[in-house]
Amino acid sequence: MHSEITPIEAIHTSIEYTTLNDEPVLRVVKKDKLMEFDENTYAKVVGSTFHNGTIEVKMLSRLLPDAPDFARGFIGIAFRINQDDTAFESFYVRPTNGRIDDPIRKNRSVQYFSYPKYTFDYFRTLGITDFEGPADIGLDEWISLKAVIKEATAAFYVNDSEEPVLVVDKMKHGAEAKGAIGFFVDIGTEAFFKDLKITAID
Asked: What secondary structure does DSSP assign to 59-70, as a single string?
């Protein structure tokens, strides 16, 4: 993933191509909407259009020095992003929850949400737990993510797991939605991405 072959547009984020451990990576940090959560804060792959298929990427998150206590290293993907960035589907991880003893937080290691309405806060307020789950992940380590998308169903895998860490049977924007792909980041996170691979099947 290099700047000359992968044009990226910053949406409420600051982005730069840099190196990490001598590898070329994309660095993404939230720039706007700092105290709002599950927002349109990502680096968008310019010209990408995705409906069904597979999205694979490796991602690593660190907490910024000024990260608030509730920061979890939020990092993930946005997909089927509409043209004006007002609607999309998303999956992200909370690496600080991955190996914690607290069973409630541990079960919140991964999260699906659908912008703008169906945020994690919306689900939690209604006591809906179908869109989050556990995963063996941590800060400052490369996490492999694979999203398999077909119509209204999404299955998410981390670190080459045989079984998905989360399956969403009815994504909120429905089976026909399509749009761009983005690298999602939220509050307090320094996010790094590499090895993006998109396999579209239609």
From this structure: EEEEE-TT--TT
